[in-house]
Every structure is written in structure tokens, then in C-alpha cells.
Amino acid sequence: MTPRLDAISLTTADLPASLAFYRRLGLGIPDGAESAPHVEVALPGGGRLLWDTEDVVRSFDPGWAPPPSGGDRLGLAFLCESPAEVDVVYADLTGAGYRGHLKPWDAVWGQRYAVVLDPDGCAVSLFAPLAS
After folding, report:
1. What is d(CA 103, CA 90) in angstroms, rounded to the nearest whole number?
2. Which of the listed CATH numbers 3.20.20.140, 3.10.180.10, 2.60.260.20, 3.40.50.300 matches domain 75-129?
3. Which of 35, 69, 71, 104 is deepest in the core (most CB within 10 A)?
4. How far apart are CA 64 and CA 33, in angstroms?
5. What is the pLDDT of residue 1?
6. What pLDDT does 16 receive?
7. Is the pLDDT of residue 72 over 70?
8. Is the domain 7-60 a CATH 3.10.180.10 member?
9. H, E, C per residue of the chain
10. pLDDT tens digits, 103-123
11. Start-end ranges of CATH 3.10.180.10 in the chain?
12. SS3 (DSSP) at 116
């Protein structure tokens, strides 16, 4: 038997802010989830994305502390339909007040690429293949 990756979990300091960010990226997060201590959504293509508040994590792991800032601990990547959509989504998120980390550029590996930080500072990549 081989285990398979089923879920990616985020621990957040501000659940409503984190959920609002990921809703803007099109994830089907149910209304009212902001008041729950644990949230799960199904991802396109299988798998799940999970959120827990820092208080919930401390309740089962009293020694837990948020990781120090300054480094990526988790990165998520969202495939966009086109290079132009990378620019549009980046502009939408940064226009809504989310922090841009890397403005859209044409990467040497053949993708239009950009990075925005979620409310907890996790890197969220936006990408699309460049036209050949």
C-alpha cells in the first residue's frame, strides 16, 4: 500500500481574512465558514484544502508556535487559463490590498508567473503556460 496526498493544511492567524483571500481565487468556501474553527474544501481534480486557527492547533499541540517570518513554509500554485489571466488575477488581488511578492513576469521555464502573499504570508503562485 502507498499513501497518497489527500489534503494540504493551513494554520491561520486570521481565518476570515484567509478564507476571503482564497475565495477571491475561486475556491468554493461555504458561506459562514468564518465562524468555524476548522474548514475544508474540495479542490478541483481531487484533494482538499484545510484551514485551522492557531487556537485550534494549540488545543491539541500546546507547544505549537507560528513559524518565524521571513521564509516560505508552504507554497500553493494556481493555474490560470492564460498569461493574461495571471496579470488580471494578480492585479485583482493586489488591488484588493493583498501583498504582491513577485509581479507577473515571463519565466525562463515557459510560464507567465507571479506570486502574491496570503494574509498569513504564505506564497501563492499564479501561473499559465506561455504561448509557444
Report:
1. 8
2. 3.10.180.10
3. 104
4. 24
5. 74
6. 96
7. no
8. yes
9. CCCCCCEEEEEECCHHHHHHHHHHCCCCCCCCHHHCCEEEEECCCCCEEEEEEHHHHHHHCCCCCCCCCCCCCCEEEEECCCHHHHHHHHHHHHHCCCEEEEEEEECCCCEEEEEEECCCCCEEEEEEECCC
10. 999 988 889 999 999 998 888
11. 7-60, 75-129
12. strand
| pTM for the predicted model, two decimal places | 0.81
How many whole angstroms separate alpha carbon 69 and alpha carbon 99? 15
d(CA 54, CA 67): 11
Query: Residue 130 above 90 pLDDT?
Result: yes
Select from 68, 28, 25, 73 the least CA-distant residue to 48.
Answer: 28
Place of cell 488591488: 95
Average pLDDT over residues 1-29: 89
pLDDT band at 73, cuts 50/70/90? Answer: low
